[in-house]
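seq as requested:
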Amino acid sequence: MLTNNAKIILITGASSGIGEATAKVLAKAGHKVMLAARRIDRLELLAKTITHDGGTAKAYALDVVSRDNFTAVVAAITEEFGPVDVLVNNAGLMPLSPMGTLKTNEWDQMIDVNIKGVLNGIASVLTSMEHRGGHIINIASIAAHSVFPTAAVYCGTKFAVRAISNGLRMESKKVRVTIFSPGVVESELAHTTTDTATREWLEDFRKVALKPEAIANAIAYAIEQPEGVNIDELIVQPTQSSY
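struct tokens:
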């Protein structure tokens, strides 16, 4: 367990998948994990599990689309635990469909959560981190490197996350910025896809999915690097993947 190097880490989308696994891995390493998502009931169960196992965790209801909500959560964490040392912008949506189906509401949802949610997270911690240092970790995707049929808008949001992350890294001298671009991972992301043909394709694509713990361990690796070392980006894929 860490002692002097323990960090206060805020994880969005912590109620399942990569976020949940990351919270468990980082808490086990001795960090104080702040769990944020809309499903507060699931977060409270996770916090209870982590606390029972000897870790420190607290749940916060958060809709990343609301900048005011994000700012309030960070303020509450700072008041009780101290400034956020690491932000893991993990919350995301992936309702895939051909553009011709004109699921424009789903396009809007992805833009709001996947792009604006990341920007709201950055805005909530950046001023403090610029004064004292910090680490912003943004979860992108292999979809930030390649475009796939039915995923044009989703890929566009993840390309944006890479651009925002790289730009922030160039501008800041005190804040470490890391992009994680996972390949297919076991998660609830695919459950948001409503297009029937795309859902069938996803079921086949996800047969070689990584466990979310693989990404959680990679995130822990980036956080554990000594001062002055920044992991710019890690792409983590299943061995069997051809993407």
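The chain is about 45% helix and 15% strand.
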